[in-house]
Fold this sequence. Notes:
Layout: H1 4-11, H2 15-84, H3 94-112, E1 115-118, E2 130-136, E3 143-148, E4 150-153, E5 156-159, E6 161-166, H4 169-174
Parallel strand pairs: 2-6
Antiparallel strand pairs: 1-4, 3-6, 4-5
Amino acid sequence: xxxxxxxxxxxxxxxxxxxxxxxxxxxxxxxxxxxxxxxxxxxxxxxxxxxxxxxxxxxxxxxxxxxxxxxxxxxxxxxxxxxxxxxxxxxxxxxxxxxxxxxxxxxxxxxxxxxxxxxxxxxxxxxxxxxxxxxxxxxxxxxxxxxxxxxxxxxxxxxxxxxxxxxxxxxxxxxx
Length: 176
């Protein structure tokens, strides 16, 4: 039979066993910290992915709207030209007034989509917003006539204004 003292000695883990268990615990803690850090990176990557997908979705919707609007702008130009050339004796007729109302509704629809006209007449020529189609006598570098209106959607030019740019000969011609 074993004595009580011998029993306690056999039940108590050896110092080597305690050190091994502590080393194993430290190793498992490091693994847990590594897994936690990896999980945090994965969660952050997922949040970034969700944000990027949402941005791409909204960008695709904006481009789809822009494409539709770009295709509608020639119709707006045609209505502008038609209403600008209405004969004086036809101006008071109800069907002409109806066409003007349709034109206003069409312009309001385009404006509600966030499209605005690029101011060009009398402005300094800006190649980011204007497309020079010819030159004419006038103040050098200034737009002297607008051939076709330009439009922007937000801060993006969807169609540059086609303009005639002054070449500085008006001042020289007036001195003769």
